[in-house]
Specification:
mainly alpha; hpI Integrase, Chain A; 3-stranded antiparallel sheet; DNA recombination
Length: 325
């Protein structure tokens, strides 16, 4: 077995045995095919051929190409996992990536909306007078799908912020996952790990209104009837469409380039600001490690400062009693 064959074995293992997300498999496959091509250019095709120096030079070459530190780190992780798999499956004996240091990924604080921006995004574009009017088709039939999409978009934005979902999780929601009686949605996260997230307030109201009154209009000619969020043709909505929805409505209220993940970041930050403990936020977000969730504790220094001022008995004291006269 050569490296190319071993790579296909590894990607199959990620898909079938590890249950990795499709996007993860695509990213790892892209990184590892580039790695195998780099080795092939050096005449290395045997599974026991790569050495630590080869891996370090490949990562250095990626940095020279201008790849972001996060992309280089992901490539290094993919390479480590690939070699670990080959040793574990007895495809080869050597593990040259074992001692390779992962490139340091600089801390990058996520973009977060203010409370005022969130309220503007979820309310202003959806005022009743802005609802599209029904269209009369040449056949004489009245088409209200524009109105249905209007209410669907409202529900999408409310659920993204109200439940802190990843865009892939939102697109993957099925009707059976929404349990209004228990005020929860069941979410299939990364690695096919299911979690239960509360849905309350305006998010629950917008989703219920869409499901009761508007989704049936979109599903009229659709073949797939299990998805919660449908496109205008009745099929499951795509991630690209949700990205477009966020950008469109963000632009209406002056938030340029709004990304669905920004609403997830904002959800986490506002929960912590409201007093929710870190472990609970970790559970709601579906983070495997609390270190990922801890990033949100550094987002809003103003909030931390205000909490300190309110809590510390001497924070507002202007001078020490030991200060000289």
């Amino acid at each position: 077995m050569n490296l190319t064959q071993a790579l296909e074995e590894y990607l199959g293992y990620l898909a079938v045995e590890r249950g990795s997300a499709e996007n993860t498999i695509e990213s790892y496959g892209r990184d590892l095919r580039r790695y195998v091509a780099f080795l092939s250019d050096r005449g290395i095709e045997a599974v026991d051929g790569p050495q630590r120096m080869d891996i370090e030079e490949h990562l250095a070459a990626l940095q020279d190409l201008g790849l972001a530190p996060a992309s280089v780190q992901r490539a290094a992780s993919a390479i480590k996992g690939f070699h670990r798999f080959m040793v574990g499956e007895q495809i080869c004996e050597s593990h040259p990536a074992a001692d390779v240091m992962l490139p340091k990924k600089p801390d990058r604080l996520p973009d977060v909306l203010s409370h005022e921006q969130v309220f503007a995004l979820l309310d202003e574009p959806f005022r009743p007078e802005l609802e599209p009017s029904p269209r009369t088709l040449k056949s004489g039939k009245v088409d209200v799908r524009g109105q249905a999409c209007f209410h669907r978009d409202k529900a999408i934005l409310e659920v993204l912020y109200g439940c802190g979902l990843r865009v892939s999780e939102l697109c993957g929601l099925d009707l059976r996952d929404v349990v209004f009686e228990q005020e929860v949605v069941r979410v299939m996260g990364k690695g096919l790990k299911e979690r239960v997230v509360p849905i309350l307030g305006t998010a629950a109201a917008a989703l219920r209104a869409y499901l009761d009154d508007w989704r049936p209009i979109l599903s009229g000619s659709g073949r797939e009837n299990s998805a919660v969020f449908l496109n205008v043709r009745g099929g499951r909505i795509t991630r690209q469409a949700v990205h477009g929805i966020c950008e469109t409505y963000g632009g209406i209220v002056g938030i340029k380039g709004l990304h669905p993940h920004t609403l997830r970041h904002t959800y986490a930050t506002h929960m912590l600001e409201g007093g929710m403990d870190l472990r609970t936020v970790q559970e709601l977000l579906g983070h495997a490690s609390i270190s990922t969730t801890q990033l949100y504790t550094h987002v809003d220094r103003t909030h931390v400062r205000m909490a300190y001022l309110q809590a510390h008995p001497r924070a507002r004291t202007g001078a020490s009693r030991f200060e000289e006269d």
